Amino acid sequence: MEARVKAKKETSKRAIGKISKTRRKKLLYCYLFILPQLILFLAFTIYPIIMSYVYSFFEWSGYGPLKGFVGLHNYLETISDPFFWNAFKNSFVFMFFLVLIQVPLALLMAMLLNASWLKGAVVYRTIYFLPVVTTTAVIGVIMRFIFGVYKGLINEILITLGVLDKPVDWLGSLDTAMMIIVLVGVWKTFGMKMIYWLAALQSLPKDLFEAAKVDGANPLQTFRYVMLPLLLPIGSVIVLLSAVNALHVFDLVKSMTNGGPAYHTDMVDLYIYRYAFEGGSMPRAGFASAAGVVYGFAILFVSLILGFIVKKTGGRQTSH
Which residues form a coiled coil (predicted)? Predict the structure, then answer.
């Protein structure tokens, strides 16, 4: 009897050892596969973030050995620079209006494309998603010609229709430049938000909508009392992602207005780039790093607030 028990124990140990060895082998393969990505992440994400903090304490041009320690001087200069706060304000204005316009419009379009009666929905999805995969700088250059003063497509159309008497400098006017940047930004990333909403709509349980229909709810009531509460947690995440992404706009503004007119469309990313790479004979990489750190903490603060709202929204939905 004892011999049989010992044999079973030995068999179990060998089986466990074999499973453990197989598992270690699988883990080793997994780590080997993620190793290139990990190396690239450390080299091009973590290392630059760490070094930006280091550079921010130096009056350094970005060339030659790191020298010229100035302590917190770059930070004090950043927070006292009115041009930084102008770019800061513009970045948040751009974010606010882009999210305000884009998120609800993307939801409406997703609802339309999710309708069972719509034919060729895949074609429409592709058309709306094309700007997302198009290079932003190329779009900016094209839009600069479209909204150009002379021979610009928009001006030509509006003058032909009799809406305008003379060309309008859409990108050179303080009244219209930011509006055009926002509208182009909405169009450029519209397809991605539409896909987010479409995925959310397709995950909703269909039996709830059938029950609402049986109870006599009209489409507006179904949207208000059934669909909207279910979409609220996912919608909060979409708003969070849209807001954080919109706070980093560089290539679109750089190619369309370069921050003009009179810095009216200047963004923090463009402000940092200007000091880091366009400082004439002496760029200020240290000062640009300090500005980046300040802006990074501002974005982190906004992300934490929005994340808290998302968590609360999701918690209320779960409790219901």
Answer: none
Structural domains in the chain plus CATH codes: 94-277 (1.10.3720.10)
How many Cα atoms within 13 Å fall on the side-chain side of residue 304?
6
Q: How is residue 260 written in tokens?
A: 């003009």
Which tokens belong to 282?
A: 């002496």
CA 220 to chain centre: 31
What's the CA gap between 309 and 151, in Å, rounded? 47
Tokens (6 digits) for 24: 């270690």
What pLDDT is stored for residue 318 in this prediction? 47
> Residue 169: which region, alpha, beta or left (left: phi > 0; alpha: psi -120 to 50)?
beta
Residue type, 139: I
- The tokens for 2 are 């004892």
110 to 103, 121, 198: CA distances (angstroms): 10, 10, 5
Taking only the tens place, the pLDDT of each residue in 251-308 is: 999 999 999 899 999 999 999 999 998 866 688 999 999 999 999 999 999 989 888 8
String of DSSP letters for the chain: -HHHHHHHHHHHHHHHHHHHHHHHHHHHHHHHHHHHHHHHHIIIIIHHHHHHHHHTTB---SSSS---B-TTHHHHHHHT-HHHHHHHHHHHHHHHHHHHHHHHHHHHHHHHHT-TT-SSHHHHHHHHHHHHHS-HHHHHHHHHHHT-SSS-HHHHHHHHTTS-SS---TTT-TTTHHHHHHHHHHHHHHHHHHHHHHHHHHTS-HHHHHHHHHTT--HHHHIIIIIHHHHHHHHHHHHHHHHHHHT---HHHHHHTTT-STTTT--HHHHHHHHHH-STTS--HHHHHHHHHHHHHHHHHHHHHHHHHHHHHHHHHHH-
